[in-house]
Amino acid sequence: KTEKGCTECGPIVSSFRQSFSTSFITMPCGRCVGGQRDDVCDTNREKCLARGYNLVDKSAWTAYEARDYIYVGGAEEEVLAMNSDSGTAEGTNAPEVHGFPLVFACQTEATGWYASQVQDGIVGFSQARTSFVNQMVFQNQLEYPRFCMCFEQKILRGENGAGAGMVTLGGYNPHILDAPLVYVQNYEEEGTRYKVHVRNIYFRQGGGQSIVPDRESQAVVRLNFDEAKFNEKNGGTILDSGVPLIIFDESIQQSFLTEWRRMVGSEFTFGKMLITENDVKALPTLIIQIKVCCR
Questions:
Q1: Is 79 exposed, middle or buried (0-12, 13-18, 19+ CB in 10 A)?
Q2: Exposed, middle or buried, 5 (CB in 10 Å: 0-12/13-18/19+)?
Q3: What is the Cα gyration radius of the chain?
Q4: DSSP string, the chain
Q5: 160 contacts 154 by C-beta, under 8 angstroms
Q6: How confident is the model at residue 205 (pLDDT cuts 50, 70, 90)?
Q7: Which among 77, 56, 58, 67 has a CA at the least distance from the CA of 28?
């Protein structure tokens, strides 16, 4: 969560006001979830420090570890009875009664992508023992460390409302699927990320927000790269980079830039561009084929 008073943290929808909570505690040194190294504690050895750094754009954040109770749902009738006036958990002890204690990081400084976030916090779903899902398992809120993220088909932020999709904790909801579920192999052996094996990457001319093309006439071009070399550097392709970028192995760079230039008519850039909504929707759709695993 973003703490009130955080410096360089970008726009914040609603800061976390720990003074309003009777169950909020700062994790003391000696009980640091992030480990017991010397650099985990602050200089006064009062707080457990947490840091994040991304090598792609040098984004970084600094925080301290804290713990409080959180309620994510499942006891709506009980919560309504606790606060019949508003029907919400606000002003009640519902998180302590129906929730679980969560250790999280209160940001005090953020730069780069972490400072330009539009929401007031980031929930981690990595394989780390401190991730949101794993903490729910440890607190007997979930039987298995499983989750499902389904994104709405939106290109532009704010398009057709503020929603971005749906997260299901503990498994997946078969009723929201529009295609059979398939599994991919996670090639991460010791770390906390998810790594996959990319087989092919395509550009589809004329855009489109689904794997199903808008028109039959849309050309699909496979990018030229060596599959083995593309996946070998990190033991697989990282599925989530931690920033809003897709990170590919450099072996695909020349083919990517050449095909982009041919389809778009201009050079690919990370710089700012003045284009219309229709221009954005007409950009090539990137299709990534991932190697499947067992069913």
A1: buried
A2: exposed
A3: 22
A4: -EEEEEET----SS-B-GGG-SS-EEPPTT--TT---GGGB-TTS-SBEEEEE-TTT--EEEEEEEEEEE--SS-HHHHHHH-TTT-SSTTSSHHHHHSEEEEEEEEEEEEGGGGS-SSS-----SSSTTSHHHHHHHTTS-SSS-EEEEE-S-SSTTTTSS--EEEEESS--GGG-SS----B----SSSSS-EE-EEEEEEETT--SSSS-SSTT--EEE----HHHHHHTTTSEES--SSSS----GGGHHHHHHHHHHHHSS---SS-----HHHHHHSPEEEEEE-B---
A5: yes
A6: very high
A7: 67
Joined together, the tokens standing for residue 169 give: 């904790």
Q: What is the rounded average pLDDT of the residues 76-88?
A: 74
Region 105-115 average pLDDT: 83
Token look-up 């070399």 returns 229
Q: In this structure, what token pair is assigned to residue 269? A: 């850039």
Rounded-to-integer distance, Cα 268 and Cα 274, Å? 14
Burial of 162 (0-12, 13-18, 19+ CB in 10 A): exposed
Mean predicted lDDT score pLDDT of the chain: 83
The structure's pTM equals 0.80
| pLDDT of 45 above 70 | yes
pLDDT in tens, 257-282: 999 999 999 999 988 888 898 898 89
Query: What pLDDT does residue 173 have?
Result: 87
Look at phi and psi of residue 242 and say left if phi exceeds 0, alpha if psi is from -120 to 50, else beta.
left
Q: What is the pLDDT of residues 21-33, one digit of tens each?
A: 889 999 988 888 8
How far is the CA of 105 from the CAs of 32, 117, 172, 182, in angstroms? 11, 16, 27, 34
Between β-strands 100-111 and 60-70, what pairing exists: parallel, antiparallel or unpaired? antiparallel
